[in-house]
Amino acid sequence: MYTNLDENASLKILKNDYLGHLSYIYQNRPFVVPITYHYDAERNVIICYSAEGHKMNAMRKNNEVAFNIVDVDGLTNWKSVMVHGKFEQLFGSDAKSYLHVFSLGIKTLIAEKELKELSFISEFSSKAINENIPMIFIIKVEEVTGKMRKD
Question: Are 30 and 123 in contact (CB under 8 A)?
């Protein structure tokens, strides 16, 4: 049986995961790529990072994006959340601040879900701040919908 999820249930799924699929348009063609993210509920944004390249160039030209998270326990037991929003690249102290929130959020989720300590996340955060790599961007959440199937 399929059921629509309300906004709160959809946001809970978004908040409790860190891997999703980012969709964007480039030269009138849709692209979908897997990406690590952190949902900042206070600011209602999805925080991500990327190297310079195709994806960043595409989103700078057309900032309308979609983001999908799927939580699958089996063929007839899954939840899916779709987010529509706007891409915004961050710079300077804003980028550093959001990167810090991203790093702490990812580290906490992975420690809880996978019972692992992630020292490389702190090293990544420090390296990124010192070397100005990678580029930090957010998706300003405009709409969230969700569905689930449970038989």
Answer: no
